[in-house]
Amino acid sequence: MQTEAQEEGDKLVLHYHDVVIRQSVSCNLSRSLIALIDCLNEQDLDTLAPGQWLNDTMIEFHMEFLERTFVPKDAKYLFLRPGMVHLITYAEGDVMQLEPALPPQMDQYEAIFIPINDGNPHKAYSGTHWSIMVYVRAVSSFYYYDTLKFNNLRDGELSSKRIQPLLKLKKPTQFIPSSTPQQINGSDCGVSVISIIDYTLHQLLKSRDKKDQVHYDKIMILKSKDMSTPKQVRDNINGMIKRLQQRCKTSCSSSSSSSTTTSSSSLNK
């Protein structure tokens, strides 16, 4: 399916699972690198520059990368995409009616990472600030992190209440506003969210084999030293994209050589 941006000639940079980054040459990667839900264009990539506000698609790309390369297959961790969180939070009526459109068996996940945005309830992609909430099933708790003085606290609380029925819990959940290192400008909320996702994911994975002994209120505490700097996050994502792009080029080259060889063999028969 083409988007308006594709029709206008944006370049394909990379095709990675549920995310496409456009540049001049497309390529066929192995099955493990193919899927399409959303598109990253050059304007999206520009949000990685210092001082720029990270948009939805870059956060989705990072989540996709973690799912495919970092999280063990037997770990039941869910990364809800920003658009899905918006739908759950603001759709009218009973949230259970949305189940067919949501990831199956949400009640079975050990942890759910939930990006929060202060956007207009009636307009997607309209917010100005990101925060992050992590649901931990073992303690029925939503840990809420905000790098701008709990700017999105009410949005986080609303999202947690809307998500609760989908989790089919037998006991009430806790919403825990967690102390969070604060950003020093108005543009680093998105990269801070990525840093927090990385750290809390690491903490949860590290504790998987000793669940009965884990004090989640301790391991989910976040301090400044635990977070990557905004520059580190931006550089890491840029580097990630370049490495995947190189894999794409290598795959393209191999596919092209294979195709040429096959064609030549056919002509010689």
Commentary on this structure:
It holds the Pfam family Peptidase_C48. Belongs to the peptidase C48 family. InterPro entries: Nep1/2-like (IPR044613), Papain-like_cys_pep_sf (IPR038765), Peptidase_C48_C (IPR003653). This protein is an alpha/beta fold and 269 residues long. It has 2 domains: 46 residues, no CATH class; 177 residues, Adenoviral Proteinase, Chain A (Adenoviral Proteinase, Chain, 3-Layer(aba) Sandwich). The protein has 8 helices and 8 strands; from the N terminus they run H-E-E-E-H-H-E-H-E-E-E-H-E-H-H-H. The strands form 2 sheets. Strands 4-5-6-7-8 form a 5-stranded mixed sheet, sandwiched between helices. Strands 1-2-3 form a 3-stranded mixed sheet. Helix 4 packs across helix 5. It starts with a helix and ends with a helix.
Alpha carbon gyration radius: 20 Å
Q: What is the helical fraction, as a range of percent?
A: 40-55%
| CATH top-level class of the largest domain | Alpha Beta
The H-and-E topology, N to C, reads as HEEEHHEHEEEHEHHH
For the residues shown, what is the average pLDDT?
82
Give the second-level CATH assignment, the architecture of the largest domain: 3-Layer(aba) Sandwich
What are the main properties of this structure?
269 residues; alpha/beta; Adenoviral Proteinase, Chain; five-stranded mixed beta sheet; 8 helices; 8 strands; disordered N terminus; disordered C terminus; deNEDDylase activity; cysteine-type peptidase activity; hydrolase; Sentrin-specific protease 8-like isoform 2; Peptidase_C48_C
